[in-house]
Amino acid sequence: MEYSCLSFLGLDGILLVEKTRGEVDVFDSDIKENLGQASDEESDHDDSEDSDFREWQSDGSQEFDCLSLDEDDNLVFRQGRLWSRHRDGNVSLAVGDIFTSKEEFLNVMKDYCVQRGISLRKIKNTKSRYTQRCINNDCSFKIHATVLVNKCTWMIRSLNEGHKCPNTQFNKYASSRWVATKLLDEFKDNPNMDKGIMQKTLMRRFGVAVPDYTCWRARKLMKNVVEGRHDEGYKVLPNYMRVFKEKNPDSLCFINWKDEGPGRNPSFKRWPYKGILITAMGLDGNNGQYPLTYGVAPREDEEEWSFFLHGSATALDAREDSSKYVIISDRHKGIIKALKNVMSQVARRICVLYFYKNFASLYPGAWFHCFFYIAANAYSKFVFKKAMDKIKDKDIYAFHWLRDNEPLEHWARFKFDQTLKVNDNTNNFVESFNNVIVKHRGKPTYTMLEEIRKLIGARFDKRFQISADWDGKVTPFMEKKLKKVELESRNCYNLVPARRGEFDVREGSINFTVKLAYHYCDYQRWQVSAISCKHAARCILSLNHKLDDYYCQWFNVESYRKLYDGIIHPIPDSCFWGRGSELPTLDPPFELRERGRPEKHKTRESRLPIPPQLSTIQLSGTKRCKKCKQLGHNSLTCGQPRDEYDRL
């Protein structure tokens, strides 16, 4: 079964995206099954005697209110005593100790053997008797326990504690499940606990040394209990969508699936699945990150981006007319094709950081770096032309590369659409948001989506409360900008008014015309960014007006408060959801992550042809031949004929 889950956080709500493949199956949230599947790869001692991990969390000290004892059993309890753990965590056994079940007795025996360094040899282990002794035949340690008449309670009948064998640090009973049981509380407080901390804690508390691989397996078991299993995260998505719509009726949430038929290798469920997190961010009036859309997809291609952008456009009401929006991205082909199919009228820009990396791969150096950013960030066509002429004089091929590979409307500020009032040409704010949620990206799908929802909801509430203390007309970011522009306006002189808000302003040897009524200046910064430039500020101040009287409504404090006035309603725990009548249970995708360390996602740089003047150069570095002691080649190529460019 293939399905897609889409959820969106726009001005009124949240939109989450999920796209993967799964199979219809019956959902079972029993944690015991989770732990059993997660530990299949480990050969634990006597798995049939291992109890449910959640029953271990109290270290064997379980409640006994559910026991129903008759008079004969009460006589037995008068002769013995209910076993209890010491406050310091040590385990001691004695004849007459009573345990509520065999599972509790076996768990206590594991703790006892680990603390005393005992390895047992089985003599009897049935439903009614348990007899074991030390694995060393010369040792006199032996324990015998039997079940009582109620067929549930167990009692130690005899115990010989004469254990005199050397105590070893390693113990076979210190399995990954045992380690997970003992360290679960610490792991909840410190999810980043590494194997070093785990080994030190176990050595201090129990005096046992645990191998690295046991610690990693125990950590995986604890993560499954705290965060949930990856395959379980996929199964609850349809029900999660239903509950999300009920709690947030103003939000949009989509899901789509396709039946692929039965048949699946169950071993696939042991490993994490492939997937990437896709985010789309905006900027608020205070230059802060505003999450628009986020979602999960199995891969990054045209199909996934089209699905993602379709949901985004639906939530923003941009399916018919997307001309009032700007999208800044890298040069990924999937994004470019999806934008043409879904939002063909949107203004597209590329991040100049990615664009410069493509450019610098062919034309490196500080000189090209300086003039590239002068050309990219110039508001005036005159400044842009000057920078490009410098690049042309330096290298004609670099000039043609910048002119031909991308339209100027995608990366040069002076060509940006002035009706949009957006001067950003990088997507750094998206990367900043990804760094905030990086600790949640490795969690199961449902858990990750919930953590991101909580993070965004808390951010909305915090920013709304902070804005309540603002007294000015504009946001603090805008106030800083206006103060900086006011200081820069002192460099403008020879101001000549021409009535009706029009002026001639000179800066250096250049004359600029300003029209306050139309928010116009020849420098073009005011038209592109909606923030008055220093030339316009000089004219505004000459009229004894305030700069914040000439600002865009997007930077208004009231607009900022309205933006964050909405609420993303909390979602209850999955145990309170109930079950939808027609909702299926989805299995995880077929595509799995390969074993080992994943490959790094390198910057996607276009494979462009190398200019002729670079293709004739062979970079030799400082290689020195062992035979002739000359630079530029090695002993394997020594003496071979070369061309005029010293190439083989």
TrEMBL record:
Residues 268-358 form the MULE transposase domain. Residues 35-55, 588-608 are annotated as: Disordered. It comes from the Eukaryota. Residues 39-50 have a biased composition (Acidic residues). Residues 90-156 form the Transposase MuDR plant domain. The lineage of its organism: Eukaryota, Viridiplantae, Streptophyta, Embryophyta, Tracheophyta. This is SWIM-type domain-containing protein. InterPro entries: MULE_transposase_dom, Transposase_MuDR.
